[in-house]
């Protein structure tokens, strides 16, 4: 089960890295004046929650995608002349 972390807005502003690390373990509830105001999730958790899949155009537009190494195997496609009779 995911671990929920609670941070005040002040704590979030002072240590965003801590909030991001905590979001890897589960939702981070951010409070304003002691009351829950926002929730920080990883993008993957957000997609699971909303049922949204990422399409290829969105994936290719994401920052850092140019750093991913990918060697696609060559596709061997047999072709035949079209019968236009």
Estimate what percentage of residues fall within beta strands: 15-25%
CATH architecture of the domain at 5-53: 3-Layer(aba) Sandwich
At the fourth CATH level, what is the homologous superfamily of the domain at 5-53? YefM-like domain
Number of H/I helices = 4
What topology, given as strand order, has the largest sheet? 1-2-3
Family: Belongs to the phD/YefM antitoxin family.
Function: Antitoxin component of a type II toxin-antitoxin (TA) system.
InterPro entries: Antitoxin_Phd/YefM, YefM-like_sf
Pfam families: PhdYeFM_antitox
Task: Explain what this protein looks like in three dimensions.
The protein has a domain at 5-53: YefM-like domain (YefM-like fold), CATH 3.40.1620.10. 33% of the residues lie in helices and 18% in strands. It has 4 helices and 3 strands. It has a 3-stranded mixed sheet. The radius of gyration is 22 Å and the shape is elongated. Antitoxin component of a type II toxin-antitoxin (TA) system. It comes from Azoarcus indigens. Belongs to the phD/YefM antitoxin family.
Layout of helices and strands, plus pairs?
Blueprint: E1 5-8, H1 9-14, H2 16-23, E2 28-32, E3 35-40, H3 43-50, H4 56-61
Parallel strand pairs: 1-2
Antiparallel strand pairs: 2-3
Brief descriptors of the model:
85 residues; alpha+beta; YefM-like fold; YefM-like_sf; Antitoxin
Summary?
The protein has helices spanning 9-14, 16-23, 43-50, 56-61; strands at residues 5-8, 28-32, 35-40. With 85 residues, the protein is an alpha+beta fold. It has a domain at 5-53: YefM-like fold (3-Layer(aba) Sandwich).
